[in-house]
Write a structure and sequence with these properties.
With 358 residues, the chain is of the alpha/beta class. It has one domain: Aldolase class I (TIM Barrel, Alpha-Beta Barrel), CATH 3.20.20. Helices cover 30% and strands 15% of the residues. Strands 9-8-7-6-5-4-3-10 form an eight-stranded parallel sheet. Strands 1-2 form a two-stranded antiparallel ribbon. β11 and β12 form a beta hairpin. The chain is globular. The N terminus is likely disordered.
């Protein structure tokens, strides 16, 4: 014990560094970590299988250097209270960056050209009951003065008091709703027990109106809702955007030996997805995204602030922007800027510029 204590004393961080903390992650190899502001490489790699990071071809690196992180999706947590069978960002770790480190990374992104940040998960309101994401939202709008700050949530844990504290800093709240049939929601994995997912959606829409937040709906079209007619319900809710995704398979997340989900039974064909879109073509707020548009057109940061490259059908992480900076890390993101614009990734995303009837 004395020898172990002596070794720890020799490697302890000076008082100017951040305090030690322990990770609770099941895949962590190193139980205790000293976090320093200049190096995130000492954070444990929580993936059960570590892939070597290879430099992309020169043409891709040149293109990536020209790309600015205009719109970034930060999945700061993987934990969720739902069990959606097709989820492609599963709870493989329980890690969440300390608030000050997350803010440091957001400053780096702003300096590199970020205009829009979207906080996602997992379920963003699960960590610290929404206080953590609330503080990030406030920081991005108040300190960084970003034009657009948004959240994607399943909506089950949002309380009105959150809107009272943080609503003025939030531009868009996107709530996931895959079906207006409660039995289908339960089948998919969005069941809330005695609570009704659709009724909760209507309540959230009202709170968004009351507190000046643009309301958006995200739907994943899959085997169990592909024949559903949602025209009437979506028209009544009147979101600023109705994002309709085709169910997507990601190796290691919702398909494959290491996956926590088996989403194959949820997958639909391109033709089936197109028929769903045709059925809802008169919904003015409809924004469809097939698998081809979705796979490479998002800049995704994981819980360690590593860009995730999905080009090869699985998530291959870069080094953290906290270690190497945004310019170096983005080279490994696989981001297709042309596809980003082609899918309509750039739109009126600040509530100050939206003509909303509140």
């Amino acid at each position: 014990m004395a020898r172990a204590a002596s070794k720890e004393a020799n490697t302890a961080a000076p008082s100017s560094r951040r305090p030690r903390y322990q990770s609770r992650d099941p895949f962590v190899r190193t139980p205790t970590i000293a976090v320093v502001s200049a190096d995130l490489s000492r954070f444990p790699d929580t993936r059960p299988c570590v892939h070597k990071q290879r430099a992309p071809p020169l043409s891709e690196r040149s293109k990536a250097r020209r790309s600015e992180p205009g719109s970034v999706n930060y999945h700061f947590t993987r934990r969720c209270n739902y069990t959606c069978g097709f989820c492609f960002h599963t709870a493989r770790t329980s890690f969440v960056l300390p608030l000050e480190e997350a803010e440091r990374g957001l400053r780096l992104l702003k300096a590199a050209g970020m205009e829009k940040i979207n906080f996602s998960g997992g379920e963003p309101f699960l960590h610290q009951r929404g206080e953590f994401v609330g503080k990030l939202v406030q920081f991005c709008k108040q300190e960084l003065k970003l034009p657009s700050v948004s959240i994607v949530s399943n909506g089950s844990m949002i309380k009105e008091r959150w809107f009272k504290h943080y609503g003025k800093y939030l531009d868009i709240l996107a709530v996931s709703c895959d079906s207006f049939c409660e039995e289908v929601n339960v089948l998919i994995g969005r069941g809330q027990g005695k609570r009704n997912h659709v009724e909760n959606l209507q309540k959230l829409k009202k709170w968004c109106q009351n507190y000046g937040v643009a309301f958006k709906i995200n739907s994943v079209i899959n085997r169990f809702n592909v024949e559903e007619d949602m025209n009437e319900q979506i028209t009544a809710l009147n979101p600023v955007r109705w994002k309709v995704f085709q169910c997507l398979l990601i190796e290691g997340e919702n398909t494959g030996e290491d996956a926590l989900r088996e989403a194959e039974r949820f997958v639909i064909s391109d033709e089936e997805f197109e028929r769903f879109l045709q059925r809802h073509k008169d919904v003015s707020c409809l924004v469809p995204e097939c698998n081809k548009k979705m796979r490479n057109s998002y800049l995704i940061l994981d819980e360690y602030m590593r860009f995730l490259n999905c080009v090869n059908g699985r998530k291959e992480p870069s080094r953290s922007i906290l270690d190497v900076g945004v310019e170096d890390a983005i080279q490994f993101s696989g981001f297709d800027e042309k596809m980003f614009f082609k899918r309509g990734g750039k739109y009126i995303w600040s509530k100050a510029d939206m003509a909303l009837e509140w």
